[in-house]
Specification:
The protein has about 210 residues and is mainly alpha-helical. It is built from eleven helices and no strands. The protein starts with a helix and ends with a helix.
Length: about 210
């Protein structure tokens, strides 16, 4: 019992660290919060959390074994993720200046659009694939007690959701929105450059 609890505590620490590492999900959520407000940022975070649930299910069904048996599948995921991130980066670079508050409400990102963008980035993020195919898969193997498997899923999903909600709340404050309006173009292009760099890196190491 104690050994399982210690291992789950370790999984929680690794999950928090994985969420905190800068990546496409975090940059997208930060931008949505500053540009489109708390609702869009939360929607994006819920979409990312759904992708976490999907990856949990995939790991429970044998994701690690599947990728080992079909390495082309991981290459396909990297290719799709890289192309999507590059497309997203180009869209950020081409984003027009933000409208004034009265106009912004008419042209804001819809809840569902933000949700599915969060889901898409979460599903194409190779960090998620590696985490769930390696570390997380160790907690959902056939020899692992059922309560440990359920606890591992709960820890990962709760950590992901908590992190996304905290980020959405922080970066949708008035201070963050004001900072974004003052420096939208450099912020968008910085985020676009980083997104593009992630995408190019995926394609560069693709073989």
């Amino acid at each position: 019992m104690n050994a399982h609890l210690l291992s789950l505590a370790g999984l929680f620490a690794i999950s928090v660290a994985t969420c905190a590492v800068p990546g496409p999900n975090n940059f997208m959520l930060m931008r949505f919060g500053m540009r489109h407000g708390r609702g869009a940022a939360l929607a994006s975070g819920f979409g990312t959390t759904l992708s976490c649930i999907v990856w949990c299910a995939a790991a429970a069904l044998g994701l690690a074994a599947l990728l080992a048996a079909a390495p082309w599948l991981y290459k396909l995921l990297r290719l799709g993720g890289g192309l999507y991130l590059i497309w997203f980066a180009i869209a950020l670079w081409r984003t027009p200046p933000q409208a004034r508050p009265a106009e912004a409400s008419k042209s804001g990102l819809s809840w569902w659009a933000a949700f599915w963008q969060g889901f898409a980035v979460g599903m194409t993020n190779p960090k998620s694939v590696l985490f769930f195919a390696s570390i997380f898969s160790a907690y959902v193997g056939p020899e692992t007690p059922l309560w440990v498997r359920l606890a591992a899923v709960g820890i990962c999903v709760a950590t992901c959701l908590g992190w996304q909600v905290a980020m959405a709340w922080l970066f949708s404050t008035r201070r963050a929105a004001s900072a974004y309006r003052r420096a939208q173009r450099p912020l968008d292009r910085t985020a676009g450059t980083l997104m593009g760099a992630f995408g190019i890196n995926l394609l560069w190491v693709f073989d």
